[in-house]
Design a protein that fits this description.
Blueprint (H helix, E strand, L loop, with lengths): L17 H14 L8 H17 L2 E6 L4 H4 L5 E3 L1 H10 L4 E5 L2 H10 L4 E3 L8 H4 L3 H10 L5 E4 L4 H5 L3 E3 L4 H7 L4 E5 L2 H10 L3 E3 L13 H8 L6 E4 L5 H4 L4 E2 L2 H11 L3 E5 L2 H8 L6 E3 L13 H10 L8 H16 L2
Parallel strand pairs: 1-2, 1-3, 3-4, 5-6, 5-7, 7-8, 9-10, 9-11, 11-12
Bound molecules: 1,3-dihydroxyacetonephosphate (13P) and iron/sulfur cluster (SF4).
């Protein structure tokens, strides 16, 4: 960073002092490809304050791959896809978990670690999939198809998980469905992920009409338009996208699956058909790869910001609390998933 005589005070109100600049210089190096230098004095004081407070409170920040780079790379302690976050929430020794992600992820963390304080920096960080189904809907589906076990995507409320036999994520959905040994399963609530699973297995999949508002906006024509000028480009798509979009992809997988693909195969040019911040986070680590970015933002993930994370750490609010009876049944469905290796 450029040297300065008097510390500039960004609009945040937290001053960008020499101490802050020095303490965060190594972190800025990690994100310099995706965060312009002029923006760093706004983020750095929060990054510094959060990292100090975290240590004082024995807190960890779990950060989903869709967090913005200053959160993902600079304050996230444990980062990953929904499956990895669930595993890490179950294993962490910290007293406090701050979920830099959406509400269902914080609920999953609380179910797996009921003795810990779990906070989410903005309780309004929801999910269109979680909104698409209620516990009563699950009971209705069970009555209609009594022979079929219920597989529920983790992108659901604790009440919905509590009505389910087992959970899944985008990383393990087909494996979970096949682990049950059933001829047919009820798959809730993502229709597109369900159709993708159906294309990978002989098990009959009974669908629900839920969708991710971010991924369902992609179209096959849009992907072809992105690819046309290049020809040679690896297209990686999240299975929450519609089937015709997935048909344009070289690889379909969870956010962590896409990151692994880029790291292992190192394509010269890549198109990530998923939420915007993911491309920034991966691009920050791969200076030699060109990223072509269709940008669909998740408005729920974007509610999580550095100032809100700092406030959550200072106040240990808003806390995630779940009715103990619901939590116990929901936990069982998540643990059933984690037991499938
Ligand atoms: P994964 O990180 O599990 O692939 O999920 C993507 C997602 O949409 C989470 O909200
Ligand atoms: Fe939900 Fe889609 Fe946002 Fe993920 S990206 S939190 S599935 S709305």
């Amino acid at each position: 960073m450029t040297p300065f005589d008097s510390p500039p005070v960004p609009p945040s109100g937290l001053p960008y002092t020499k101490e802050v600049a020095d303490a965060t210089a190594a972190l800025y190096k990690k994100v310099e490809r995706v965060i312009p230098e002029i923006e760093w004095p706004v983020h750095a004081p929060y990054v510094h304050a959060i990292n100090r407070l975290k240590a004082e409170k024995n807190a960890v920040i779990l950060a989903h791959n869709y967090m913005t780079p200053e959160i993902f790379h600079c304050v996230g302690d444990l980062v990953g896809d929904s499956l990895a976050l669930a595993r890490m929430a179950a294993e962490t020794e910290a007293d406090v978990i701050v979920m830099a992600g959406v509400h269902f992820m914080a609920e999953t963390a609380k179910m797996l670690s009921p003795e810990k304080t779990v906070v989410i920096p903005d309780v309004r960080a929801g999910c269109s999939l979680a909104e698409s189904i209620t516990a009563e809907d699950v009971r209705l589906m069970r009555r209609r198809y009594p022979d079929a076990p219920v597989v529920t995507y983790v992108n659901t409320s604790a009440e919905v998980k509590a009505e389910s036999d087992i959970c899944c994520t985008s990383a393990n959905a087909t494996k979970i469905v096949e682990s049950l040994g059933a001829k047919r399963v009820i798959f809730l609530p993502d229709e597109h992920l369900g159709r993708h699973v159906a294309s990978q297995t002989d098990v009959e999949i009974i669908l629900w009409r839920g969708a991710c508002e971010v991924h369902e906006r992609f179209t096959a024509e849009q992907i072809r338009d992105y690819v046309k000028p290049f020809g040679d480009i690896a297209v990686l798509a999240h299975p929450e996208c519609p089937q015709d979009v997935l048909a344009e992809a070289n690889y379909v997988g969870s956010t962590a699956g896409m990151i692994d693909y880029v790291g292992n195969r190192k394509p010269g040019r890549v198109l990530l058909v998923t939420e915007c911040s993911m491309s920034d986070n991966v691009a920050a680590e791969h200076p030699d790869i060109e990223f072509v970015r269709p940008c669909n933002l998740c408005p729920h993930m974007k509610r999580i910001t550095l100032p809100k994370i700092l406030t959550a750490l200072q106040t240990l609010e808003p806390r995630v609390e779940i009715d103990p009876a619901v939590a116990a049944r929901g936990r069982q469905a998540v643990e059933n998933m984690l037991a499938v290796r």
